[in-house]
Amino acid sequence: MKIHLTLSMGMLVLALAPAASSIDFTSAELSSEESTRQLYERWCKKYPDGRGCKDDDKSGRLDIFRSRAQEINIMNTGVIHNRRRLNEFSDITDDEFKETFGSCFLKSREELLEHDVITGDQFTFANDDIPDYVDWASRGAVTQVMNQGSCGACWAFAAAGAVEGIHMIENGILMQLSVQELLDCSISRGCDGGNAVKAFNHVIDADGIAKWEDNPYVATRLNCHKAQKVVTIGGYKFVPRFNETALEQAVASQPVVVSVDTTGWAKHYRAGRVFSGPCGQRPGHQALLVGYGTAQEQDIDGSNYTIDYWKIKNSWGIHRGEKGYYRLERGYEETGGLCGILRFAMYPVEPIELID
Ligand SMILES: *[C@@H]1O[C@H](CO)[C@@H](O)[C@H](O)[C@H]1NC(C)=O
Ligand SMILES: *[C@@H]1O[C@H](CO)[C@@H](O)[C@H](O)[C@H]1NC(C)=O
């Protein structure tokens, strides 16, 4: 859904695109063991959270990296513009990608059915007057990007982020909350996956959640234990599905948990551009939607076009994506949004501060 542009750019609200930041390389760099290793070292400098980057013996990872790079090199044969590049996922296999970045959001049949009957009567943002551009990160309602590591706790990070956001917006307090508590105490499969709904239920049932520093994240599930609660919520609501306007209205009011399918990201994601697919429609990942906007990008023929995007905060560390954030193309409402982003979105309400 690129919109080719003939009008003056002054008419649009445009966000500055971050510099392209994936790694281009030449086939010569794959010609010897030594040069491939050097390319991998260069990659590790850019993506230090890569699996083998901190090991002295990188040989296992190097093999996977080499075959990824060879794959890209073949696809780039004869291509001059828009060459594919190495990205933050170039050191892992398809199976590893799915396990680490694509399958931490679990929903039962019952939950989906329940969500299907919730048509949005509870939705409270029916406000036509929404801005063209929203970014809660730049408005100070979003805490720093963290890294879930090899634990599938995306759902807990997303839920904590949503509570952090509304706590800041309504109570004026920006405080990192304990993802570890959600991981330990929510009804979930812990590091094997969960659902932000269960995390919100825990906060409601336990009368609150502790702050991050009182129960810091260790990327493994531990016994649920008590730390002092700092904020609670009165409940949570679902955003009506397949409705782009509703999701825009929701995130214009506060950060929102969204569920996305990451299929296709491993091979096709490129920082510095809005991700426009290919992507599946079966969300296996949850993240925090923090805004939306319109970016200007350049086509291979040099022409400019604008592209509408959603901006999400991920829990994959600051060295991935755009300083930890990812932009996905907005649109495709009829099919559930790109990567299924319009399918399963929710937000907490009535944050109550518990200590002073
Ligand atoms: C989408 O949601 C808005 C309220 O946010 C509502 O006015 C509109 O009718 C909905 N559209 C559809 C197709 O249901
Ligand atoms: C596209 O935008 C860039 C940067 O704003 C500008 O330098 C370039 O001239 C534009 N290209 C066309 C064809 O208008």
Written description of the protein model:
With 356 residues, the chain is of the alpha+beta class. It contains nine helices and nine strands. It has two domains: 67 residues, no CATH class; 246 residues, Alpha-Beta Complex (Cathepsin B, Chain A), CATH 3.90.70. Strands 1, 2, 5, 6, 7 and 8 form a six-stranded antiparallel beta sheet that branches. Strands 3-4-9 form a three-stranded antiparallel beta sheet. Strand 6 and strand 7 form a beta hairpin. Helix 5 packs across helix 6. The radius of gyration is 21 Å and the shape is globular. The N terminus is likely disordered. The structure holds 2-acetamido-2-deoxy-beta-D-glucopyranose (2 copies). The site of one 2-acetamido-2-deoxy-beta-D-glucopyranose has 4 residues, from loops.
How would you summarize this macromolecular structure in one to three sentences?
Helix content is 27%, strand content 16%. It is built from nine helices and nine strands.
What layout of secondary structure does this protein have?
Elements: E1 3-4, H1 33-46, H2 59-75, H3 94-101, H4 109-117, E2 134-135, H5 154-171, H6 179-185, H7 196-205, E3 209-210, E4 229-238, H8 244-253, E5 256-260, H9 265-268, E6 285-298, E7 304-313, E8 325-329, E9 346-353
Antiparallel strand pairs: 1-7, 2-6, 3-4, 4-9, 5-6, 6-7, 7-8
Helix pairs in contact: 5-6, 5-7
Bound molecules: 2-acetamido-2-deoxy-beta-D-glucopyranose (2 copies).
Residues 298, 302-304 line the site of one 2-acetamido-2-deoxy-beta-D-glucopyranose.
Domain Peptidase C1A papain C-terminal: 130-349
Pfam family, one: Peptidase_C1
GO molecular function, one term: cysteine-type peptidase activity
